[in-house]
Design goal:
Blueprint: H1 7-15, H2 32-47, E1 51-55, E2 62-66, E3 77-82, E4 96-98, E5 107-108, E6 116-117, E7 133-135, H3 144-162, E8 171-176, H4 190-193, E9 197-203, E10 209-210, E11 215-224, H5 240-248, E12 266-274, E13 278-287, H6 290-311, E14 316-324, H7 328-331, H8 336-347, H9 362-367, E15 375-377, E16 380-381, E17 389-391, H10 392-411
Parallel strand pairs: 3-8, 3-9, 9-15
Antiparallel strand pairs: 1-2, 2-8, 4-7, 5-6, 7-17, 10-15, 11-13, 11-14, 12-13, 16-17
Helix pairs in contact: 1-3, 3-10, 8-10
Length: 414
């Protein structure tokens, strides 16, 4: 069996299954479709020699172990990818393979000119001359985030099954639900996973190696108005919607996602609902710097306190919920997994692309559970959209990377 023989067939089969998670559900996992797909993966793990395959009751993660064959003291390493897709149409996904793309031409996804993937709009396409690209038909997302990671891990396992002579330490596998809802890793059983360190295979283009993420919180502002007839409103009405606007206008004007980059943090108002009687604003707060992150949260509370003092009563209530923290706090104490991944990329002539992520991964939470977990590239581009695509050759390089990390991990500890 060639090293990558199963990669593309697996990926195409995986993405055709709708595993969209449900952000409005309180169940774990949030959607039965994820559970069914995870059951399928559990069977496939057993078929390629993974043992102790089981579902974590607390999280819904399917985990298992590829036993070591090196008779050494190699630290246990883990690989994690999520199975759910984002909040975009995922029903009846029709993947299309465009072989030997020239890096210049438009790709007519829908065949009628309605949905076209254009280098003029998405210049990342120019990097992929000579690559085989997998896209959608324009009606759905693709699901390379993160079924490319799932397929990469499974292909690694296929390789070890076919090549038992290749030495490796004990390898733990974890397939996760609900990464896209931001809740999947909340319930992850790190003690059950029991690795020295791990990697999420959930990044984008070739070379991505990420160990610095945002600190993240969600703030919900509840505003109680005083609704009266507009004819007698003067001096009596407190329009909750207007109060919401006034609240928002007291935040730093330019601290918004559309005006920030690199390590610049922001406040993002992503939901505003209500009536003059009652309104609700929901924000996400992001910053790489922990102190600035705490200051941002306090700013939101201070604005509410100031407005309530002006009203002479409590009309604005702020609830802040921390979501995840910058994994760099953990990784910088022990850079071993980052250094191994970096060395593995360099050995493969892949230039490491290390930068602060303007987002988070399941590894952000898992790192704070005691398993340092940086993130590796899986290949996806334009994620969460109808224009999502992935290079088959980049996924192949991801498989190479996993194998090389395991080789270095074994060699350096025996």
């Amino acid at each position: 069996m060639a090293k990558y023989e199963t990669l593309l067939p697996r990926f195409l089969r995986y993405v055709k299954v709708n595993t969209r998670s449900n952000p409005n559900s309180s169940t774990v996992p949030t959607d039965p479709k994820e559970v069914e797909f995870l059951k399928t993966l559990a069977k496939e793990l057993e078929e390629v020699g993974v043992v102790d395959v089981h579902t974590q009751p607390s999280s819904g993660y399917v985990v298992g172990t590829l036993p070591a064959n090196d008779d050494g003291n190699t630290p246990v390493i883990g690989y994690i990818s999520h199975v759910d897709t984002a909040d975009f149409n995922a029903e009846n996904i029709q993947p299309q393979v465009h072989k030997n793309y020239d890096g210049e031409s438009d790709i007519d996804l829908s065949g009628d000119g309605k949905w076209v993937l254009k280098p003029s709009v998405f210049p990342s396409l120019k990097k992929y001359a000579g690559h085989d690209l997998v896209t959608t038909d324009g009606l759905t997302l693709l699901g390379a985030d993160d079924k490319s990671g799932v397929a990469d891990i499974m292909t690694m396992l296929d390789y070890y099954k076919e090549h038992p002579e290749v030495k490796h330490g004990e390898i733990r596998i974890g397939f996760a639900p609900d990464e896209e809802t931001g809740t999947g890793a909340d319930h992850f059983d790190a003690k059950d996973f029991n690795t020295k360190y791990a990697y999420t295979v959930d990044g984008g283009p070739l070379g991505e190696l990420e160990y610095e993420t945002f600190n993240a919180a969600q703030a919900t502002i509840e505003i109680q108005g005083n609704e009266v007839h507009t004819a007698v409103a003067k001096g009596l009405m407190v329009n909750a919607l207007q109060v919401g606007i006034d609240y928002h206008n007291q935040l730093p004007e330019h601290d918004r996602p559309e005006e920030t980059e690199d390590r610049e943090g922001f406040y993002h108002l992503f939901k505003m609902t209500g009536t003059p009687d009652h309104a609700q604003l929901v924000y996400i707060i992001r910053d790489h710097d922990r102190q600035k992150f705490e200051e941002r949260k306090q700013t939101m509370k201070d604005i509410a306190e100031k407005m309530n003092a002006e009203f002479g009563e409590d009309r604005v209530n702020v609830e802040v919920h921390d979501q995840y923290y910058n994994m760099r706090e953990i990784l910088e104490k022990d850079m071993t997994p980052v250094n191994i991944a970096k060395k593995a990329m360099e050995n493969l002539d892949i230039k490491p692309d290390i930068y602060p992520v303007r987002g988070g991964t399941d590894g952000s939470k898992i790192s704070f559970m005691g398993i340092p977990t940086p993130n590796l590239f899986a290949g996806g581009e334009n994620m969460h959209s109808r224009y999502e695509y992935v290079s088959v050759q980049t996924m192949e390089r991801a498989v190479d990377l996993l194998l090389e990390i395991n080789r270095i991990n074994t060699e350096e500890n025996n």
